[in-house]
Design a protein that fits this description.
The protein has one domain. It is about 45% helix and about 5% strand.
Length: about 240
């Protein structure tokens, strides 16, 4: 009887220790991403592609890329897609710093985050699930309700805000609007509210995953207050 009690106590204590360790690791990795500084020279390379950007605007792009990395973390390292062309360009330049990027991925994720091109909702179910996942967690990072957003998270607003040629333009909620030409020259305005709509591929995969690396995950509700983390696509 005593042995059985000891075994049960050991199992319970081991489980608690494991859960606490995972939580600690998740917090450490999140803090690393939030405080990480990109290697020198990346902004100069980004400006070769987008010469209109100021240093302050490059820093804004970096915050968007950071937001994407946090979304990947908080999704439990599931597949995520990149909604911003300019953040995708910066991410691609980062990858070319091979050793720096590998070291970053190891500390931030414990694995390598592979690149996939920036995308919008289309007939590709995996890409769509990745976009919905990214939308969900970037909204949560800025205390935006992903179902009824009144504004966009930074990552989804970047291309329009910075007038990126051939970038992706989003509006927070435009279900009542017909997709129209964007005022900055981009071809179509995409709607944040569409991520909860099954009309594109017959489902809403990625919008409400059951797993998350954040044990303090408390649901998708929330207001539209301030706060910003700061992301391309990827995942296993």
């Amino acid at each position: 009887m005593r042995n059985s009690v000891l075994i049960v106590c050991f199992i319970v204590s081991s489980t608690i220790c494991f859960v606490l360790w995972r939580r600690y690791l998740a917090l450490q990795r999140e803090a690393y991403v939030r405080n990480f500084t990109l290697p020198k020279g990346l902004f100069e390379k980004l400006c070769k592609q987008h010469p209109q950007l100021s240093i302050k605007e490059c820093q804004l792009v970096a915050n968007g890329l950071r937001q994407f990395f946090l979304a990947y973390q908080k999704s439990g390292y599931q597949y995520v897609s990149m909604p911003s062309q300019v953040a995708d360009d910066l991410w691609h330049e980062f990858i070319l710093y091979t050793k720096n990027y590998q070291a970053f991925c190891k500390k931030a994720f414990g694995r390598f985050l592979h690149h996939t091109p920036a995308a919008v909702l289309n007939d590709n179910r995996q890409s769509n699930a990745g976009l919905r996942r990214c939308w969900r967690f970037t909204c949560r990072d800025e205390n935006i309700n992903p179902l009824t957003p009144t504004r966009l998270p930074l990552l989804f607003a970047l291309d329009t805000k910075l007038n990126i040629l051939n970038g992706f333009s989003y509006a927070a909620n435009c279900k009542s609007l017909i997709p129209q030409a964007a005022t900055d020259g981009n071809s179509v305005v995409h709607c944040g509210s569409d991520f909860s709509d099954s009309g594109f591929d017959g489902g809403t995969d990625g919008f409400s995953d059951s797993s998350s690396s954040n044990t303090n995950d408390s649901g998708d509700g929330g207001g539209d207050g301030g706060g910003c983390g700061g992301g391309c696509g990827g995942g296993d």
